[in-house]
Amino acid sequence: MAPERITRADVEHVAHLARLALTEPEIEELTGQLGDILGYAAQVSALDLTEVPPTAHPLPLVNVFRPDEARPGVDRDEVLAQAPATENNRFRVPRILGEARG
Amino acid sequence: MSTREVSKAWEAVIGLEVHVELATATKLFCSCANEFGAEPNTNVCPVCLGLPGSLPVLNERVVEFALRLGEAFEFSVPAQSIFHRKNYFYPDMPKDYQVSQYDAPICVDGTLIVDGTAIGIERAHMEEDTGKSLHVGGSGRIHEADHSLVDYNRAGVPLMEIVSRPEMHSAEQARGYVSALRGVLGVIGVSDVKMEEGSMRVDANVSIRPVGSDELRTRVEVKNMNSLRSLGRAIDYEIARQIEMYETDERIVQETRHWDEDAGVTHGMRTKEGSEDYRYFPEPDLVPVAPDDSMRARARASIPELPAARRVRLVSEWGIADHEAAVLLAEPGLADYAEGAVAAGASGHDATNWSVGAVLGYLNENALAPQGLLLRPDGLAELIGLVSDGSLNRKLATDVLDEALRDGKRPKQIVEARGLAQVSDEGAVGALVDDVFAQNSDAVADWRGGDDKLKKKKRGFLMGEVIKASKGSADTAVLNRLLDEKLNG
Amino acid sequence: MSAATRNGETAAEIAAAVRSGTRSAREVTDAYLGRIGAGEEAVHAFNLVTADAARARADEIDAMIADGHDPGPLAGVPIALKDNLCTRGVATTCSSRILAGWEPPYTATVVERVVAAGAVPLGKTNLDEFAMGSSTENSAFGPTRNPRDPSRVPGGSSGGSAAAVAAEFAPLALGSDTGGSIRQPAAFCGVVGVKPTYGTVSRYGLIAFASSLDQVGPFANTVTDAALLLDAIAGPDPLDSTSIRAEWNPVISAVDEGIEGLRVGVVTELLDGIDADVAARLSEAVDVLRAGGAKVGDASVPAAIHGLAAYYLIAPAEASSNLARYDGVRYGLRVDGVDVADMNAKTRGAGFGAEVKRRIMLGTYALSAGYYDAYYGQAQRVRTLVIRDFDAAYRDFDVLLTPTTPTTAFEFGDKTGDPLSMYLSDVCTIPTNLAGHPAISVPFGTGANGMPVGVQVLAPALGERAMFRAARALELGAP
Question: Same domain, yes or no, for B61 and B148?
């Protein structure tokens, strides 16, 4: 059951899930555009496909494994050099406030 | 309030989610070393750092370990299992999604026998661990910190999440479950199962209901217990808290609560509305796992005898008590040690006594595992032989064992070097008694003239003097007999 | 006009000359760098030209030749790399502010393969940000212009790679194709573009847009050059779980086998709504194939009409997850915030452009609780239908024929205000991505505005050899 239309609250909720800070004009524009695009995409929701299994992947491969043998990774300095902020050979981030984690 | 009082009106319903770090050489999806305690951000690569363009490839050993779990807990293993992405933002998770299994896990519907009761296990699945954050400022607590520092060495380490059914009803039973689970996981060789080092993490789902009801009420997830003891305390606390809430007509909300070991309480964690929409979908960078017959046969072949079956066998074969067998099995490797001694000629009864006594004491004192003992099981058997053929009394044997455990010498070697062999020869013991009587004629006279109380005291004194003179080597059975003969004679 | 004379020299000719010692790799590289120097300002095909590294690499190739070693089938051939392929120590941006200046600590498997085959990378080409777009207008670093007409778009998302080959800045280029991102710009710029069978070319080091659809593939001026490049990059990669395990069966030997008896189906569902000039070229293409000995008939892939809607649910859903990692923690842009969540949101708000945000929002919505079954789940079932319908069509035909795009290259700004109409320009290319099948776009004359028209040959999974035979016949018979 597709929703009837996309509201501003939907957009704000989804932006929160996606960790996107949006400007006022962006929220407004997206409210309309997402509605249009989902309205078009809703043609698939309307199809009766209960007997059709989903395809997650175009390849019929199974059991692709790697041997449990350690190999050297990448140089720490090379990686840390690309980071916005580091301290004591770790990645530095602003404080983590209390959202529950999975 | 203790759990015992609970049973008057309320019954606890407990389910456990156990995360176990697997003891593989490498991570779940990349070839970085899976190693505890390395320098920060040294076991990292594009894959476990979630760098753009990197792709996961599944570690075959993890699948092998998962199938061992399948055998050990009598899970059914579906023909295909797949990975999903669990999407949420967290700085210690490099891709901002966790690759885990969702509605098609590798193991479903298993069982664990806990002290004779079968506890259902709903599922066990493979997933990747997160990195570790260090919180700087504000006494290291996450929410008070000024900022945090992230190390990704642990990111991508393979975990099995093992989810029990809500079939336990006390903290004690929950502890028993974890203990039994740990025993099996250790025996099948998939994990170090060290709760204190974090290689085994236990979360508890706790609810309560009136006794006699079978409803499932609002449950609370309790996290952050880092030992069996704190698991028990946290569950007891949470049960009491919920009872109090019901009895004061307060509403229990479904939430995650954090166990505070120092304060002995659980704290609610702030959650934002809607923040738990994980948007699971099949991980498109991985293909399904379809265990075939040969993979399953290999897992089956690698499973040794499991603790519950072994406990039954040891009790019946050795004639030991069930609780003794339980102690032997609770310490990983100790039952193997005792069985090694039996294989070298000791009786099961003696091997058990020494193993759960002096040997276990030594292990605990020195934080060792049986595998690390210098004295091998055949050495223990040798010691037991010296006792049963009368060469050593129990006291001497304890001394000899202590030395053997410490420096790994053979018991016979120690006995020889210290001249400790027990003196059982009647002539030699009799001569010692005569010497002691001669040197302590007052005591002998006191005994002769004394009442029962004094007789007992003086006899004990004379006995002690003979043992001292023999440097402990006198066979106490022979000594007792000769002492009485000579005093009365 | 024959392919070999349309654009100067071919990659095959360059490699042959370099391998035989008649031309130096350095001389070839300098010539192409010279052309870039003269024309790049007008086209803006590149985000970065790595001239010094290219010359150094060319010198290495020449040294190998001097030492009697064979540098490989692409000896000394300059190549342009789409800027979503990781190159160690060389900025890789996806044309996004969020990755500006990022230097990966590793190199994509495809890039390693072309270098191992003797090619000389010239630089990183422009694209729609994170490969999301059909015009290269979504690049954070400004659009690429169509070398055939600078007022028109080159297509996208691999617009920079297509333009680089069309402008003769490089005889070969690599692009990536998620819903048509190689074939559509190839058609708009009048070059050959190939989307190989999913799993044929390693995705390791290709910065993901939609993982179950993305595939790296070649751009070239000729069908033979495209085959040469595909053979160099295809084959199993242990670093990509979705890479096909079997060894690659080279296509180069099939190119000139001819099409006698080849069964070609024209997909009727994809003829609706295409421009008359494009339709006219397609019908001439049918004539060319018939003249070459192929048996051409009408084919039906009914679910193809739902492909676009399914694609615009599946691709954004996967993208919303793939792009979560750009959070300001480990690399790329960071905009400070009061806490980590605020920093993440501000970084992403400032670092992503409008189209990327739109698709992240769309995909997050499609996966969110309550809508999964109606959108993402349903789109996956449509995907099954598309595969079934193709399977049925391939019982009667060896390859299928469609236009690559409904129109020729449009003008800048034509569709930027209306995302849905932009999406509709991918209607012919998307079904192949959903099925994981290969497809090739071959230039075939021009439209009413003088811009190139592309026709598309589709084949079942691993049907590249038949596909290349048909493509070569179309190239030889093109007006």
Answer: yes
Best to test chain B binding among C367, C371, C380 (most B CBs inside 10 Å): C367
**pLDDT tens profile B227-257:** 999 999 999 999 999 999 999 988 898 889 9
In chain B, the number of structural domains is 3
Burial string for C285-316 (b: 16+ CB within 10 Å, else e) reads bbebbeebebebeebebebbebbbbbbbbbbb
Give the residue among B246, B239, B104 at the shortest CA–CA distance from B171.
Answer: B239
* CA proximity to C152, closest of C456, C355, C454, C451: C451
Gap between the Cα atoms of C359 and C318, Å rounded: 10
| Chain C nearest-CA residue for B93 | C325
Q: List the domain range (segments joined by +) for residue B163.
A: 3-299
Select from A65, C454, C474 the least CA-distant residue to B126.
A65
Give the span between the Cα atoms of B244 and C366, in whole angstroms: 42
Indicate if B448 and B365 belong to the same structural domain: no
Radius of gyration of chain C (CA): 21
What values do phi and psi take at B220, rounded to 5? -120, 135
Look up residue C187 and give its two tokens.
Answer: 């058609």
Locus of tokens 């008896």: C261
Write down all domains in chain C, each with its CATH number in brackets: 3-256+459-477 (3.90.1300.10), 304-379 (no CATH)
Please tell me the distance from the alpha carbon of residue C47 to that of residue A102, in angstroms, as a whole number: 39
Judgement on whether residues B82 and B13 belong to the same structural domain of the protein: yes
**Do β-strands C78-82 and C120-125 pair in parallel, antiparallel, or remain unpaired?**
parallel
B397, B386, B333, B396: which is closest to B363 by C-alpha? Answer: B333
A22: CATH: 1.10.20.60
Q: Which residue of C has its CA nearest to A2?
A: C374
pLDDT at B181: 95
Give the β-pairing of B220-225 and B200-210.
antiparallel
The burial of C319, by beta-carbon neighbours within 10 Å (0-12 exposed, 13-18 middle, 19 or more buried), is given as: buried
| Contacts with C, A 70-99, CB within 8 Å | 74-75, 78-79, 82-85, 91, 93-97, 99
Q: Is residue A78 part of a domain?
A: no
By C-alpha distance, which of C19, C23, C8 is closest to C69?
Answer: C19
Whose structure tokens read 């070229």? Answer: C281
Say if residue B225 is in the same domain as residue B350: no
Same domain as B169, residue B116: yes
Interface with chain C: mutation pick from A27, A44, A80, highest number of C CBs within 10 Å? A44
Q: Is ipTM > 0.90 here?
A: yes
What would the DSSP string read from start to end of C421-472?
Answer: HHHHTTTTTHHHHHHT--EEEEEEEE-TTS-EEEEEEE-STT-HHHHHHHHH
> Containing domain of residue A23, as a range?
8-45
Q: pLDDT class for C315, splitting at 50, 70, 90?
A: very high
Q: Is the pLDDT of residue C268 over 70?
A: yes
The whole-angstrom separation of Cα C123 and Cα C115 is: 13
Dihedral Cα C305, C307, C310, C316, nearest 10 deg: -130
User: Residue C321: which of B53, B85, B148 has the nearest Cβ?
Assistant: B85
Residues B349 and B364 in one domain: yes
> Residue ranges of the alpha helices (H) in B293-425?
293-301, 307-318, 322-330, 334-343, 348-354, 360-366, 377-388, 394-407, 411-418
The model's pLDDT over B92-140, given as tens digits with 9 standing for 90+, comes to 999 999 999 999 999 999 999 998 899 999 999 999 999 999 999 877 6
Q: Are strands C172-177 and C78-82 parallel, antiparallel or unpaired?
A: parallel
In this structure, the answer to whether residues B141 and B181 fall within a common structural domain is yes
Residues 6+ apart with CB under 8 A from C354: A26, C138
Q: Write out the catalytic residue numbers of C.
A: 82, 157, 181
For the segment B48-64, the average pLDDT, to the nearest whole number, is: 98
For residues B87, B93, B95, B100, the Cα torsion angle rounded to the nearest 10 degrees is -50
Provide DSSP, B105-140: -SEEEEEEEETTEEEEEEEEEEEEPP-EEEEESGGG
